[in-house]
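hi! just following up on the protien thing from before. the input was this:
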Amino acid sequence: MKLVLFGSKGQLGTELKTQLSKLYDIQAYSRDEVDITNESSVKHILYTLKPNIVINAAAYTNVEQSEQEKSSAVKINTDAVCHLASICEQIDALLIHYSTDYVFDGNKPSDYLETDQPNPINVYGSSKLGGENAIQASGCRHIIFRTSWVIGRQGKNFAKIILNLAQEKEALTVINDQLGAPTSVKLISKVTIEAVHSIQHNNTPWENGIYHLSSKGSTNWHEMATTMIAHASKISDLKFKTSIKNIKAINTEDYPSKVKRPLNSRLNINKLQAKLSFELPDWREDFICIINDILKEETIYEA
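and the predicted 3d structure came back as:
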C-alpha cells in the first residue's frame, strides 16, 4: 500500500505524517516542497509514484483572511482540489480529503447530516464546498471527511490563542452561542488510519462520499475556554500560569468580526461511527487529550 500526503507541515498534515509513517509506505510533501495549485507538478509526482491512496491535508484555512483573499482561497480549496481529483481518477487512486462544517449556514436546529443541503455563508466555506463538488464530479474514488473546530499542536487555532491570552490578561470575552464540537488532529488521524487499514484489507467497505467526523456531544467556544483554562491551571508541573479572573460569555452579534460564521456546527456522526471499530470520544475527552499535548510545547502560540 503506497500513500502520498500533501500538506504535511500543516496542523493536520503534521499529525497525519507522524502517525501514517509508522504503518505505511508514505511520501509526504509540504507546501514548500509541492504547491498543489501547480497542476503539472502534482501530476508529475502522482504519475511517477502511482500511489494507491492520495491524502490531501493542504488547504487555505484562514477564515478571516479568506474574505480579503478570495482568489487565493478558491485557488487552493477549489481549483487545486479539482485537478487533484482528476489526476486521482486517471491513475485510479483513492482520494482522502478533509472539508468543514462551514459548508453549512448553521440555521438547522439539529445536527447536520451528510445529505443536508450545504449553504455556506462565508468565502472559506464556499471555497471548501467547491472542493467537495469538484471531487464528486471527477469520478475518482474518494472519501471526504467533514470536520469541525479542528485543534492540534501545530499552527494557529482557538485553543492555542486562548491559552496564550490567559497568560497575559485578567479578563476574556468568548462567544457562547455558536454550537459544535472540537475535533483533534489525533482523532482525525486515527479515523483516517482506520479507513486506510480497512481499504487495504478489504474489511468494512467505505463507499464513495462524505462522512462527518467530529467528537461526540456539543459545546460552545466559551465552555471550551473555561474547560481548558481550568484544566491547565490544575497541572502543577507546567510552567503555565494564568492571570485570568473572568471569562465573559457574549453572543456572536457582540463580537467584532467581518466574517459570518454558522451558529450551529453540530455534525451527525452516525454514518462514520458505523464504519469504525472504536467509539468516537466525547468532546471533553478528545479536547483535554489534545490540550495536554499543546501544554507540553515550549511555546503555545505567539500572536
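Residues 2-156+182-216+266-281 form a domain with the Rossmann fold fold (CATH 3.40.50.720).
The first helix runs from residue 11 to 20.
cheers
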